[in-house]
């Protein structure tokens, strides 16, 4: 509710309205209290007031009861009594609904809310996947490879395709990025598959959310209240918290510096804020603290709603200048210490003991301390929270469906688009590499076949050459044999002729010599004997000559 341009949260014990200055709303805030103490009512009153100021609002609806912001509240006797008691007569208080846009990461109870793997980044994605330090570093390397090779990571199948590609070519990447473990890559891929089973395949994709679409107002000038249906999402605390942190990071990186404007550009209410910090790594906590510290200068206010202030890390809690704390209960010594710590975070009020007051508050009552115009926290005050103008409770399925279909953003984001991204690119690349490998294999096979044929031809040529040489040798031997045979035949003929001639000549010569010698020595007997001896000697001499 607005009073003189200020946000009125409730009335203190003296009947004075307790107001939040719009120019201090981007200093962040805390709404805490045990279950059933009225945190949701406080959140709705503040959200309505920011909308009346023309400030867009984001709320995460964990239980489904914040959806009632879209519908007018019920005119009951109890409500009329409270309005009268607080002095909230018209025109100051009017039962009415507020401009609302429903969102849902799963696309079931709202417009599908998507982002891309690239926009999420490796740090937040590693937390969703539950990776250790080594696997987180490997995921960062994968993102770097994607950037260097201009691969667009839109959805989970893009990421899986990239990881599998790196695994298949890790030897090529290890020279630049160091050892890449195939086992670690397999762990990341399995984690991505498990995340797909939790609905991440619907969250990551196109059309991705354009942050500027949330800085909208209704036709009457009131700020649009964007409600994220987190009834199913809250069961996956990692995805829930990581989405919220991603969205804050996107705002921080997108919005320009504005310092301290007269009112916030946008206000966030994170219900069940403990989910944002549960099991968070040190690096992630540092990231959250950094965003909370710096996003104030972008004109964005953040309100954390949780059961106990101790759910918020000290570095973040120190940034929350505006505090609304409903009743806290202490049943154990540690809870008593938490209440004392919560009480010590307020400026003391001499009229009451803050620690005792926190334990004695009734439903719809709270201890409040807002920042004044100088940015100094007010002293703690007991406050009765005003009733909201919108419905207390959920909306019907028919009402929700009508509001979703009537939203101007429904047509833009309802249709899922599968662009040509890393999966398609790597699929083509792998196909091309496979084709090249097939061509190379066929070339190698052809070369092997050619070598085999060449060897076979060489072998056949050697066989033919050997056969030819063998045949030539056979023919040569046959010729030599024939020539030898002819020579032997001719020799024999010559020898025979020579022998005949020799015999004749030798006999004649021998006889003549024998006659001459024998004639002088022995007479006729001698001549006969000498002739025979001379013939014999002549034949022997001729035989010796021809054998040589």
Contiguous low-pLDDT stretches (5 residues minimum) are none
Could you tell me the mean pLDDT?
A: 87
Tell me the β content.
Answer: 5-15%
- Helical run tally: 18
> What is the structural class?
alpha/beta
Radius of gyration: 55 Å
Q: How many strands, which pairing sense, and closed or not: the largest β-sheet?
A: 13 strands, mixed
Q: What is the distance, rounded to the nearest whole angstrom, between the alpha carbons of the first and last residues?
A: 150 Å
Give the helix level as a range of percent: 40-55%
Kindly state the number of beta strands: 13
What is the approximate shape? rod-shaped
Structural summary, described in words:
By secondary structure, the chain is of the alpha/beta class. Helix content is 53%, strand content 11%. A hairpin with a 4-residue loop joins strand 2 and strand 3 (17-20). The longest helix is centred in the C-terminal third of the chain and has 100 residues, at 422-521.
Compact overview of the structure:
The protein is an alpha/beta fold and 548 residues long.
List keywords for this structure.
single chain, 548 residues, alpha/beta, 13-stranded mixed beta sheet, 18 helices, 13 strands, 53% helix, rod-shaped
List the helices and strands and how they pair.
Blueprint: E1 2-3, E2 6-12, E3 17-20, E4 29-32, H1 39-52, E5 57-61, H2 77-86, E6 100-104, E7 111-112, H3 117-129, H4 133-148, H5 156-168, H6 170-177, H7 182-197, H8 200-203, E8 225-229, H9 237-254, E9 266-270, H10 274-277, H11 282-294, E10 300-306, H12 314-317, E11 322-325, H13 333-344, H14 354-360, E12 365-369, E13 381-385, H15 397-405, H16 410-413, H17 422-521, H18 524-547
Parallel strand pairs: 4-10, 4-11, 5-8, 5-9, 6-7, 6-8, 9-10
Antiparallel strand pairs: 1-2, 2-3, 2-13, 11-12, 12-13
């Amino acid at each position: 509710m607005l009073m003189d341009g200020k946000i009125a949260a409730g009335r203190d014990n003296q009947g004075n309205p307790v107001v939040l200055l719009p120019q201090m709303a981007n200093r962040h805030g805390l709404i805490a209290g045990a279950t059933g103490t009225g945190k949701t009512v406080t959140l709705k009153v503040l959200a309505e007031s920011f909308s009346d100021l023309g400030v867009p609002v984001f709320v995460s609806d964990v239980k489904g009861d914040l959806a009632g912001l879209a519908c007018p509240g019920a005119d009951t006797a109890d409500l009329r009594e409270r309005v009268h008691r607080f002095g909230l007569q018209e025109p100051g208080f009017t039962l009415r609904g507020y401009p609302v846009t429903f969102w849902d990461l799963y696309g079931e109870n709202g417009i599908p809310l998507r982002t891309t793997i690239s926009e999420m980044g490796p740090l937040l994605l590693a937390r969703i996947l539950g990776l250790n330090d080594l696997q987180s570093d490997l995921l960062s390397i994968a993102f770097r490879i994607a950037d260097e090779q201009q691969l667009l990571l839109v959805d989970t199948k893009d990421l899986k395709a990239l990881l599998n590609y790196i695994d298949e070519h890790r030897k090529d990447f290890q020279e630049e990025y160091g050892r890449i473990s195939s086992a670690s890559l397999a762990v990341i891929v399995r984690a991505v598959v498990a995340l797909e089973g939790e609905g991440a395949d619907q969250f990551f994709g196109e059309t991705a959310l354009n942050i500027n679409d949330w800085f909208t107002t209704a036709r009457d000038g009131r700020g649009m209240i964007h409600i994220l249906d987190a009834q199913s999402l809250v069961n996956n605390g990692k995805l829930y918290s990581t989405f919220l942190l991603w969205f804050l990071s996107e705002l921080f990186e997108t919005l320009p510096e504005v310092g301290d404007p007269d009112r916030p550009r946008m206000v966030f209410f994170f219900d069940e804020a403990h989910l944002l910090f549960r099991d968070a790594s040190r690096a992630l906590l540092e990231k959250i603290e950094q965003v909370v510290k710096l996003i104030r200068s972008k004109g964005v206010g953040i309100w954390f709603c949780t059961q106990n202030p101790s759910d918020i890390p000290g570095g973040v809690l120190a940034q929350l200048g505006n505090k609304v704390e409903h009743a806290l209960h202490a049943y154990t010594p540690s809870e008593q210490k938490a209440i004392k710590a919560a009480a010590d975070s307020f400026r003391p009020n001499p009229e009451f003991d803050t620690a005792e007051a926190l334990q004695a508050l009734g439903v719809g009552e709270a201890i409040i301390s807002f920042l004044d115009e100088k940015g100094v926290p007010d002293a703690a005050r007991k406050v009765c929270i005003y009733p909201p103008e919108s419905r207390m409770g959920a909306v019907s399925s028919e009402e929700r469906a009508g509001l979703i279909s009537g939203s101007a953003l429904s047509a833009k984001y309802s249709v899922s688009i599968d662009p040509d991204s890393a999966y398609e690119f790597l699929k083509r690349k792998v196909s091309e590499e496979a084709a090249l490998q097939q061509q190379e294999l066929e070339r190698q096979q052809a070369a092997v076949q050619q070598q085999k044929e060449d060897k076979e031809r060489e072998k056949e040529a050697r066989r033919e050459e050997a056969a030819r040489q063998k045949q030539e040798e056979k023919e040569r031997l046959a010729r030599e044999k024939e020539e030898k045979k002819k020579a032997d035949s001719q020799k024999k003929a010559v020898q025979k002729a020579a022998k005949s001639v020799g015999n004749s000549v030798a006999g004649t010569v021998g006889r003549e010599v024998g006659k001459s010698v024998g004639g002088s020595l022995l007479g006729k007997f001698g001549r006969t004997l000498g002739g025979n001896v001379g013939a014999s000697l002549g034949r022997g001499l001729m035989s010796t000559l021809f054998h040589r």
